[in-house]
């Protein structure tokens, strides 16, 4: 079976959809599926490009075909990619489209319709009300003109969780629904020297990590405030915040840290590589993600694989797996974050037990191999049709 995966940009700095597409591609190819990613050369939301980064992503077994993106890069457009898509879609048994509301995934869907090829849209949260509310007017016009046709003609709409599916039920037919959780994988770890020096010989259980794009919805500011309150109540430990700039920048967060007088216990390190992220998951014992919305939350699954105690909100869809594993704590009210940090930092044995439970569950349920098997079966079914 030959599958074309389509995503606007594949650099890890673009977050879950980019990381997920590469992880899935590698696992599909291991299972004998001829899967190919077609994407642009963008590797960060700032518009930077690098074939070297794409080559590094490919080194683990992924097959990635890239074309040069054209301005404005925030739309992740590339006529070179579209030309290659025409050839790849024509040769494919099925097309797997990552995301919605961007030109390249839309072009891929239109090509699939023209060539009568089945296609699956992996929504990556783009169909949830929270995301539809961003740039609401533009997305409404897009949906009225073309989006509803693209969604309506799709063989399947793939969701990462029941909650993501429920929130898109107003625009997706029940017969289109396919629910497949996202997976996770850790790479050979590479030490982040600045973090290693900052943590020193502090116990793993006393090291708290936030890792992800510094997006507004992920609320790194709320984590800093909760950390300040916990420290005032005697909490011992250190907090590391890693990730590429989003609506928040590294400088913005550093100003919050300085204003709160937390320079000695909070480190803002900026973006890290996948290998460095893996090291962080293994060096720190507590993972905190106070996000207002995640259609899944790959970083939660990665932290679980790393044996971390995870603290997150019930708006993070992966929290259902966290609860099933007994590997962390889930909260609804933002004021609870301070208490949960205090609980974790005051009981090392609790953090160790929780981390072991999280790892055991993730190794059985949240690997890319398990996800790829499910996705290949679904794509095979629509391909036959």
Automatic annotation (TrEMBL):
Limits of the Glycosyl transferase family domain: 203-360
Molecular function (Gene Ontology), one example: glycosyltransferase activity
Organism domain of life: Bacteria
Ranges where the Glycosyltransferase subfamily 4-like N-terminal domain occurs: 15-187
Keywords: Glycosyltransferase, Transferase
Protein name (Swiss-Prot/TrEMBL): D-inositol 3-phosphate glycosyltransferase
Lineage: Bacteria, Bacillati, Actinomycetota, Actinomycetes, Micrococcales
